[in-house]
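Reopening this one. Same input as before:
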Amino acid sequence: MISATQLSQLPQDLRRLVRGVQNRSVADFEELCGRLPGCSASELCILQPVFYMHLDPDRLPAKPTPAATTDIDLVFWSFLAIVVSLGIDGSSDDSASSEKRYLISSWNRITPWLVFFHDQFIMRRANYRPLDRLSVIKLVTSLLFQVSVAGGNHSRTTRVPTIATLYRPIAELWLLALTTKDEDVECLSLQSGTHPTSFRVFGSFLVAECIRSESFVTILLEVSGSIDIVTSAALKYVKSIRSMAKNPDIASNSFKLKLLVPLFSCCVGIIATTSMHNAAIREAYILQRSIEVIFSTLRVLQYLPPGGGSTVQALASSFQYLVFLLKHVDDPVSAFHKALRAHAFETMVHIDPSVPLEEEEEEEAAADPHAIIEMFFMLLFSYILHNKILTYVYKHVDTWSNDLGPIVRQDEHLWDVWSKTGQTIRSYGMLRSRAEMLRWPSASEKGWVLQCHCGGTAEDINLRQCAGCQVIRYCSKRCQRDSWHSHHKLSCNFLKAAVGESVRCSEMRIISADNTPRLIDTTPRKT
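Same output, byte for byte:
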C-alpha cells in the first residue's frame, strides 16, 4: 500500500486515480495506465505497489463468470500497468531496479493469474471470455519477456523464474506463436527503450531453458502430440531466423540483430534435445532435413552486418548436432551429404574468429573454431569413400582450396590437414574416373560393373569377382595380379564404397596369403 506521505507527493489527478484503483474502480485503473507514459521516474516508484495490490491468488475464480469480471479486469489492467512501467524509456537506474525488484518478488502472486489468463482466454477453454484473445496474448507474452529481462540480461533472455506451473503455457505459446501475429508485443531493451519483439524470438529462449527439465519435455510432447511435431516446429523457427536475418528492418535494429545468433543456438539445442528420443530417431527424414536447414541458416547468419554477434558458438552447437546425427541415423552418408549441400564446408572454413563474444558467451562457450574445423576435416576424410560424398567433394575440392578462410590459411596445422584431405579427394576421384565401366549385357545382371578386357566377350568368359572390393571382375588370377600391381592395389580399399552400395568399408578387406585379394566365382549356378 502507498503511505499517505507518498501519496501526497503525487499530482492531484494521480492521487484521485490511485484512490479509485484502491476502491476497485476498473475505469480509474484504465485511465491511470493511460497516464503512465507521462509520469516521472519518482512517480513510477511511488505507484509500484498500486500495480500489484489486486494480484491476490485467493480471488482467482475457478472459471470466468460475470460475477468475476471485475476481478479479471483489475488483474488485466494490473498486468498492463506493470508492462508499461517497465517499458518506459528514460527511467532512472534506481527506478528501473525498483520496478524489477517488485516484479521478481511478486512473481509467485502473478503466476497463478498468468496461467489462468492463458488457459481461459488464449487457449479458449472458457465459455465466458470478457477479454480479447489477441490483447491477452500480447499481455501474457510481454510479462514473460519482462520477467526474462528482469532476471537476466539483454543478450540472453533465459533467466526466468519458470516454476513448473508455467511449463504448459510456455509450451503452448511457443507452438502457437508460429501461426499467431504477435509482432506488436512490446518488450524492453535495457539499452534503448522499448522494441516490438515477437514471442517467436524470445519464446525459444524460454523453451531452450525449460527443455532441460524432463517434466517440461513430457508436457511439450503432450501439447504437440508427437516428437516429430516439436522438431518440425523448431525447424520452422530456424527457417524464420533465416528470413529475419535477411529482413532489412531487423538488420538495422541492433537489439533484434543481437538476438538472432543466440536464438539460433537455442533452437538447435531444442532440436538436439528432442532428437535424442527414440521416436525422433525413427523419423529420420525430419532429422536429415534438419541438418540441411540448420547449416543453410548458419550460412546466412555468417554474413550478418556488424553488431550481429559472434557465430562461433552457433557453429559449435551445429557441429555437435551433426556429429550426433551421424552416429544415430540409419543413413549417415545422406545426412552428411545434405550438410555439404547446405554449404557446411564453406561455413566452417569462413567462420570469423575476430568477432568478439559477449561476456556471458565467453563464460559458457568452450568453442574453439580451430578444433571444430579440424574435426570437420577429419569427418570429411572418413566419408569420402562413399560414392555420393566423393562425387560432391571431387566436384568442389578445387573451389574450396582456392577459397579457404583466414583460420585455415593462417594455421599451419589446419593447412596441413586440409592439404592431405584435398590430395586424397583428388586421388580417389581420379582413380574412380579412370576406371572403365561396361554395361553388363545379361538381363540377369543390373547396373554397371567393372571388368577386365582379355579379348573375349562377356558370354564366353566366366568372370570372377575380387574378394577385396567385390566390384572388379577378372577372367583369371593372372589378369588379377597384373591389375593389382599396376593400379588396383591403390583403389581396392575404397572402390566398393565409392561405386557399390551394399558393402561397408570395414567388410571389404578379404586378403590372401600373398597380400593379394583372392577371387570369388560369380558365375551363376544352375539349380
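So the earlier flakiness isn't reproducible anymore. For the record, The mean pLDDT is 75.
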